[in-house]
Every structure is written in C-alpha cells, then in structure tokens.
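Predict both folds.
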Amino acid sequence: MNPLVEFDGVMYQLELSQARSIAIALTFDQKQPNHFGVDKAQAKAIEGDGFVGDTRRGGSCNVQSISMVPHCNGTHTETVQHIVDRTVPVGDALSSSLTSCYVLSVTPESAKNCQESYHPNLEDFDYVITRSALEEQLSAADLDLMGAIAIRTLPNDLSKQSRVYGSEEQPPFFTTEAIEWLSQSNIHHLLVDFPSIDKMYDEGQLHNHHIYWNVPAGSHELTDTTLVHRTITEMVFINDDITDGLYWLNLQIPHFQLDAAPSRPVLYPLTDVTELEGGEVDGINNYE
C-alpha cells in the first residue's frame, strides 16, 4: 500500500516500490570520491586476544572498524555546527524524515562569462551555479513550496562517484546571488552533487555556508535568526534516469552527535491521484 500526500492542493501517491537512493555507495579501501586530499575511507577487521573479525581468515564472524572523514569521503549531511561553536548535532536535525523535494539540473557557467559575484573572489578557471540559471527553471514561488531542493550539475557522468577533487579538479560552487536566492526561500534541506557549496580554496571563509544558515560572515556564533533547522547534503549522485521535477525525499541520517555524518537521501516518485480509482492507501499526510 502506498500513502497519499497533498502538495499545493494536489493529491499524490508515493511510489514506495520505486524508491531511488541518491547517495554514492561508499566502497571502503577502493575507488571512492575524495575532497581535499584526505585519507580514503577504510575498513579493517578487529583483531586481539586470539580473535579476528574476518571469516575469510578463520574468524567466527565479521567485525570491522572504520575510519573516514564524512565531509570528504562521500555523501554526507551537515548542520550549522559545521561553522559555529555551539553543538547542533546532525543526528537531531530532522523534525520529519519526509519532505517534498524538487530535482533540478543546471549547467555550471564559466566565471569568465559570469555577471554574478562570489566572496572572496572569482577566478577565470572557476565554474559557478548562478541565480539566473536556477531562476530559469524554478520560480521563487515554486521554490517556497518545497521542503528541499536537489541540484544535479551537467554533464552528469559516472565519474562523479569516484572523482578525486583537488587543485587540478576543482568542483563548481554557487555564486553569492544564487545562495542568497536559495537562502531566502522556505527550503529546509539543500542537496548538491559536488563537495561543497563554497569554492574549494576560499581562504577558509565559507561565505555561502554563512549566508545559507544566516550566520554573520566571519562569526562562529549562533544568533536568534540563525536557521538551525536547515541541513546541507553534499556529494550526492542523481542518475540520469531520475528526471527533473517533484519528488518526496526521505533523508536518512545516523544519530551522530557531530556536525556531519554519512547520509542516504532517498527519492520517491509521485503519481497524481486527484481522481484515484479504487485501491487502498495508508492515509493522507501533509509534509513541508
């Protein structure tokens, strides 16, 4: 049975059997995406006192310890704690695990041709996602209805699932105007298929993060107007057969008391059932 949800006056059925994860599968010690040159995510069998946690080596069961950097080793979700002193755990970030989500594809633009800005600077080799590119595909009024937005950059090749970002492979990022436009909306969750909404080498300012969470530039303090309910999910991969448009999002996050954790965003397609004929449903729910 598939539940019904109401969105902007239209009734939809969640197609639970067609759920699609947009997390990058993390294969430990093998090819995997990487940002800032950190060590690969690693998994190692526990050993000690005659026990080995590997059945291939004679152990009775498999028991592994893992080592990783959530911000740099794959799909992850972060809270405002990423840029402030106060504790705002990612494991406590969700008031609801389900929300509306718009998938939007956009082609980053060369900074050489860009009329928008970024702080501290734009350089000719930068590629940016502009406000004008976002507004061409989604109005501010429609964005305001969404609980989340997921950005897919074009071209969208499979190498994103194991790309090593660095000085020779710098990812795109948002212009100041683009992140201001997103920040002024009602969205709770921003999902992107690149490692950071800020420029990779930005002198450590994370200016876009500050705008998105409404934290004064250069500050590490929460204020009464800080948008602590918001999350950012980075390094997703949205396969080409997931078309642009409206979905329902299940953002799955472990209960880590940290600023970031590996995550698994899942998209559910929707079917317009304004005039549903027969069949059973679990009920009608409303999610922001």
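Second protein follows, with its predicted structure tokens after the sequence.
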Amino acid sequence: MMKQALMIVDMQEAFFNHSQNFLYQSDLVVSNINGLIEQARQKDIPVIFIQHTTQDEQDEFFEGSEDWQLHKNLLRSPADKVIQKTRWDAFYQTELLDYLKANGIEQLIIAGAQTEFCLDTTIRAAYSLGFQNNILYKNTQSTISSAILKADEIIRHHEGIWNNRFLTIKEYGE
C-alpha cells in the first residue's frame, strides 16, 4: 500500500467569518474533513495543513490576522505539519514537495478550499510532480458561488474534470 498523507488546503477563518465568503455546505465539509483527520490519526497518516498567507494588510489572508487563522473547528494537533503558501499552488516556493519526499509520501488525500482556485491548482501540480494516485472524497472540499456559476456547479464541474484524470474521487465513507 502506498504511504499516504492527508493534505487540507486553506480551511481558514476568512471562509467562516464573513457571509460573502461562506463556503458551500461548510458545516458538512468541516465535519467530513474532521472525519478524515480522525481516520488519518488512527492509521498514523501525517496531516498537513496548507495556509494561504499574504503580507498585504488589506488582504483577508494577511499573516497573523484573525481571518488568516486555520479554522477553529478543525481537529488540529501540534504534531500536524503547517505549510504557508503565497500562491494558488501549494507546491510553489514552499517546503511541501521536500516534506513529502522526506517522509516517503506517495499518495495524497486532498481536501479543503477553494475548489476552482487553490485546490484545482494544487491538485494539478501534485499530478505533474508525480503524485498520480491521489484521492479526493466528495463533500470534503468547497467554494463560494461566483458571478457565473453557483458553488455546487463549480464543485461538480471540477470534480468531473479531476476524476480519473488528476485523482480519484470517492464517496465520503468509502
């Protein structure tokens, strides 16, 4: 069996503190991500939190701000790895790839936000970097509605593109 890591992307307070940023089905997504965290701990699978970070004081992800913090309802442990990123790609100029290689990780279980931005970019980058057996469980990732598409449409669209190409999508609980 491949050595796995659970990677949770950008589940930060900005998506829970402001109504215009509320993630679609946020309670379900947080609950399911916590379920993945509990399973990872039982199986001794490392948990990695990716945290979007900027130095722009006007930005919601300004380092150290309340909105920048990882969501308070996530089941975090001091043993979890936290990697800050400054771009949509969690691998871009971060220690993520080195950490995965150093720990012999071959397969990522990916969850988090936002579907069409950091999640999509990171999923595709992971595939291009050789992580070609990754898994995403339904209802463990989310986004907000745009001017063009509703959140559930964005999620369905991206999952349709990702599945059996960039990763395998499974029903939560499988």
